[in-house]
Amino acid sequence: MLWPVLDVLEGVMMAQVETVTVLFTDLVDSTALASRVGPERAEELRVEHFRLLREAVVGANGVEVKNTGDGLMVSLPSAVAAVECAQAIQQRHELRNRRAAEQLLVRVGISMGDATRSEGDVFGVPVVEAARLCAKANPGQVLLSNVTRVMVGRRGEHTFRSVGDLELKGLPEPVAACELLWASLESATSPLPPRLQVLPLTDYVGREAIRERLSEVCQLAMDGTRQVVLISGEPGIGKTRLAIQVVSEAHADGANVLFGHCDEELAAAYQPWVQALRGLIEYAPIEVLARHVSEHGGELCRLVPELARRLPNVPAPRVSDQATERCLLFGAVVGLLECAAAQGLVVLLLDDLHWSDKPSLALLKHVVAHLVHARLLVLGAYRESDIDADHPLSSLLADLRREPAVEWVALGGLAQREVESLIAAAAGRQLTAKELKLAEAVCLESDGNPFFVTEILRDLFESGGVERADGGRYVVTADIGELTLPRSVRDVITQRIHRLGPDAVSILDAAAVIGFEFDLELLSVVTGRREDDLLAALESAVAGSLLRESPQTLGRFVFAHALINHTLCEDLSRTRRARLHRRIAQAIEDTAGQNIDERFGELAHHWAAAGQAASSAKAISYARRAGERALAQLAPDEALRWFDQALDQLATVGDDNTAERCDLMILMGEAQRQTGEPIYRDTLLAAGELAARLGDGERMAKAAIANTRGWPSNVVDVDAERVAALQSAIEVLPAESPHRPLLLAQLAAEACAAWDFTTRVRPLIDEAQELARQNCDKYTLARVLTLVSAAQVVRPDLTAERLGLTAELQALADGIDDPHLGCMAAAMRFFATVEIADGDQARQCAHRVWQLSERTGQPWMRWLALFLATATAALGGQIELAEQHASDALAIGMAIGFPDAVFLYSPQFHYLRYEQDRLDEEIIDANIQMRKVAPRLSSIPARLAFYLTEVGRLPEAAELLDEATQAGLGSLNHDDLRLYALAHWGLTAVRVGNRDAAAEIYDLLYPYRTQLIYPVPIAFSSAHAILGHLAGALDRYDDAEHHFAAATALHERIGAPLFEARNLLYWAQMLLTRNAEQDTPRAVELLHLARDTARDLGGAAIVRQTTHLIDATEAVLNRSGL
């Protein structure tokens, strides 16, 4: 019994008490991670985790005390070393997590104090404190005792934040602690993208002038002016090689290089941008990403979900209509590039643009247009031979010619001296006379195409015409005259491929049909051969420079050039190629697993090329799913391509009248609407007709609901076919259908201009609102209220109801955070509040629309913002600003194909010209033509008549007024144009002296006396001012005085100085007509006030009219001696 006691005593005597610094780490949620990824992958991650830990420990001169299972216990020589070790641990893991699907998150605890060290272990209070601080820390956090922080002092540039006294398990007293605020690793540049790291063994030769110019362009970009260089040429001419040389040199000088490429046929939506931005997000400093997210939220996660892995709590992208979401996404891409460019030069290389999807080209156009002043160089490479006038790239190139700082580089073949230099570089010495003759022959045969030259040299080496001599140099062994050079690059590629043997050729055939890049695993399934057996053939192809191993992914191979891939495919018979496509499609289905949605495009391509009836069904299904995925990714142009393919495939099997075709047509119409193609209307009408033939009310409803732009389709007339489609869907659907509220509201909006409101439109509005409030979610209710508001926006007799409706709509929109919905709600509220002369609220609504348009960059929102800004500027008497806004809105409307842009611009333009005293015969003729185009609109003849009085054509104006009174002014539609028409007819009646018409118009306008006359495009006058003018003409002077005074109060409240100047003019005219005591001096006073106001605002018409009256009145007064 004595020996155990002696052992304990010996251990105590040997133990050493010393001051130690202890650090604990722990891998967060390691058990859940292992369950999620499986044992093999979990072990790989564990090894990686401990490698990162131990690298940091060694770097800080730490000693690993023990492995705790999910972490380490480490002792360090000082508090500073412990803090630096903890920071390195977090930084290494954070850097690793940027590019990893499975995140390794670590927590760290540090403490120091007196402890006992024995038999390689450490015991004592600081050990317990460090372990408990580690357990208390959040993922990615470092907690340390205040004692440790004090011992760090001012050594090292570290930042700490107090977390207060922490209750730690097993310790009797709270421990004062703080947090280390570590920063993510930053570097001047991210690594060169892997696909750009593979450079030929020889140096770049030739094209000195081009390279010198590109170096100058790079410097211009570095100085802060965005540059674009587009490199074109035939296959193999060296476009990519030149671009890689440029970006490699820029990277060596400190630039961040981003790279994206496009794949033929299999290109996914935004593919080159996804590749490029992943690299940026992987290596960008956390602070840059945090600033980006604070400005743009999580919009970029639609393209690059990795952003949410690098930053915690990234908000989800906003939900809105696709056009708005796409604009938000584009704005986020511009924002991130702008942030990156603020740190240093960014070089973006987009390769093979001739294979790019249309959304990627649209994003490129947006980036170029919006980053004019940024340290950004964009390089694009494309084959000019592969694009025609209808290719989307042709349109982009035309647009870019209008942008500043864009250059084109058209590459031709190398000159003979450059071919000689290329061969000399390969040989490693100067060429002999015999070799110079070879260079001459090769240059002549290849036209200087660098790829062709290289392939010929490889062919000569493989065939024995060129051999490697002692010392590693290449020499020509055959007689130059006896050499037979291939006649085309395809011939030389074919020869080189076949030298590998039939077995390797068969493997490469299958690989080529898979695509430009392929995985060993998929190739193994397709060929039915073991991966190890395939590797020998693939490695021989790599040795022969036909393939390259992917530097990014083990087991992935890339053809050295697209021409090699094409040559292999073209040499296959159609039958064999189709059979391979079928096997590839089946293999992808078997191996894709949960990621199959990312491969819908590949599957659609391979099944379509499989060429069998059974394959067609799958080709159609996958093409549809690829299109739906593209729509979800905000790539409607790409979606159109897939829906078109599915419809073509469906037609080949003779299945034209099916529900599947109807679904595809609806999807096609939605995609066309999102891309701004007017044909979407006809597509969706045809889809609805097919659904009707099928007796499918559900699909009829979907087609009808999709066939809208969110408000009436035509402000001039009614789209009878759309109305009929909505009516048919409502008739077929059961009363409890969830589509019914939207259908009813949409029908009300579409038909309100032609149908009797009380008997036909009102019932639709009431039922739609009732059903939506009972059965719909808030978003659908908001959509219904938007459409109902649009149906009522032309009803000044319903102003009180509209105020309540739009207030409810605005509250819903504020809670949903949908920019498009918020924009529509603010616009509808604007229309209502302007009419009641609530200037403050109207301007707030207009400002809200402006803010949303700025935030999203959505062109339609921008048009609406300018449209409302025109109205508010005109209301405030800012005529020049209103004219500028109106012109800008028209330009945007025309650019996006907005059908009502010109029609809505015309009354704004005409009103401004009226105030500027610039009405002319051209405007008169325009109104005459508009009357013919839109005979339903009562406002046009009224405006025409008034304008005729302004240019002195009173008889014609009187004739138009007589026609209107005979038709019955009281029968004018009860819409916003009714008040506008009555106001113009009233002014005309005064001008031509038609007292009967003036009296009738007064009575019709009087119920709306407190309102502002606002026919949506632009406000015209207060009703009180027009009523005062009419009353004065009718010798009802007391009524006139009342109206003019009320108009003055209204104009002051809403801030409408030009309206008030005209009101004073009318008032003075009434006083001069009445001519009571003191009326004339008072009139002169009002005229001077009106003229001064109008002169300051540029209201030339009022200035002219008041000046005329002042001069005439003062002349009378002078003659009278007054």
Automatic annotation (TrEMBL):
Gene Ontology biological process terms in this record: cyclic nucleotide biosynthetic process; intracellular signal transduction
Residue intervals of the Guanylate cyclase domain: 21-134
InterPro entries: A/G_cyclase, AAA_16, Nucleotide_cyclase, P-loop_NTPase, TPR-like_helical_dom_sf
Keyword terms: ATP-binding, Nucleotide-binding
Domain of life: Bacteria
One cellular component term from this protein's GO annotations in UniProt: cytoplasm
Name of the featured protein: Guanylate cyclase domain-containing protein
Stretches assigned to coiled coil: none
Gene3D superfamilies per record: Nucleotide cyclase, P-loop containing nucleotide triphosphate hydrolases, Tetratricopeptide repeat domain
